[in-house]
Each structure stands twice: as structure tokens, then as C-alpha cells.
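name: query_chain
kind: protein
chains: 1
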Amino acid sequence: MYLPDIPDADLADMLGDDAGLGDLTTHLLGIGDIPGKMTFDARDPMVVACCEEAERILRMAGCVVERVAKSGQSLAPGAPVLVARGPAGALHRGWKVAQTLVEIASGMATCARGIVDAARSVRPDVAVVCTRKNVPGAKAMSIKAIMAGGATAHRLGLSETILVFDAHRKFREPVAAVELSGRLRAGAPEKKIMVEIESLEEGLMWAAARVDILQADKMTPASLGALTEALRERGLSPLVSAAGGVNAANAADYVRAGAAILVTSAPYTAKPLDIQVRMARMG
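structure:
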């Protein structure tokens, strides 16, 4: 499984933000040079993510690290993630940054995996994609986490895709859907055209204009099913994506209703999952 890495510069910033001027407690206790060992283990069942970055953070802090797990791996409670050795000052410097990164990313990855598993229990080739509503400044972590869970990015940013919202259309004079679709296709013929819709009527209008993807926003599975049936009856074949409120509990219902793509932001606000950290003096 290919997963992107968070750049070293970002990891160094995380480490520097927490301990840029040193560790006052360790300094005052005079324990910084005492050798020790630190273990990271899964406390909760999880799909672990960003353990490679945790390893690199701890190395930056001055530790020697043995990583046992890899991002995307399912771990049972008590399963080891990594072992770090080094002076107490290095262990304490990297501890919380590395732990918190893995906990947050693993929560996202586990949530994404739950949605993917639910959706693919109905249709193995359905795509689960995550929006660009990640926490600002945390995109690299968020994308790696959702990919570790089996999802992919819906839109990495405004520059890569065409997605027409009603909010875009409010800034134009009224124009026929087919004319607007033609303008977009002529301007970027190598791109697919996506249009967000909120009703069956809107969906049929834009499908007749030959857009590539209808993104059904906050439609219920029943409403989306009515849309996909109406499209079939008319011989129209855009892909239909379900967006807005998609989660593990309703993913299968949307796929049964005919969604080929599930668009979700749920993993980005998933609860972090606990990593248990233990330290011991050596020697």
C-alpha cells in the first residue's frame, strides 16, 4: 500500500512547537542523561496510522527506534507499535508529540476503514472519498490517515477538480445547464465535471446536460434511490455520489440506493484512539 509521508520539516515544526526551548521538568530533575526505554502499544482496537512519522519524530528527538507496526495495519488492544531507546531527555522530548500524532491519525484511519468496509460489503468497487474539510494545517496527516483506512481524497484543493455548487451559480446570470456544462467542458476538456444537486429534478436536469458526476448533497438513501432509478429509466448514466452526513451507519444504504461514490468528512472529526506509553529506566 502506497501512503504519502508527512515532510520532515512539518515533523520538526511539531517537535519544536512542543519542546523548542527544552524540557523544563526533565532539566530541573536532572534526569536527562539517564538511559531508558519507551514502548507504544495500542490500547484500543485500531487501524494504526502515522506510526512512521512517530518513529521519525523520536529519531529527531535523539532516540533509537524500532517500529513494529505500519500504517494501515489493524491492531488489537495491547499490540505493539514501536519501541524507543535513548536518554530520558530524548524520550520525554519526543513522547507526547509522537503519541498524539498516532492517536489522532489512527482515529481517522479507523473511522475511514469502518465506512469503507460497510460500503464494500454491498459493492466491492465503490469509492469512499474524503472532502477537503480537514483541519487547516493538518492536510498531510489527514490524507495519510484516510488512505491508511482505505479511503482516498475527494478534492485535495480547488485547483484540481471542477465541482459546481449552487453557490457558484448564484454569481452567474441564469443560463441553461447544457450551456454551462458545455462551457466547462470546452475550458477543461481533460477534467470530469461534477455538479452538486439537492433534488431529483436538479439531478435529471444536469444529467441531461451530460455532466459526469452528480453529487447528491444531504439526500436520504430513499431519495437518492429514486434519483438513480429515474436516471436509468431515461437512459442517463452519470455517476452518482452521496455527500453530506455519510458515515459507517448509513454507508451501505447509500450504496444499495445506487451511489457509486461516497463523499464524507466524518473521519476528520473522529475520536482519537489511545496509544499506551510506558517508560522504564535502563541500566
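note: The chain is about 40% helix and 20% strand.
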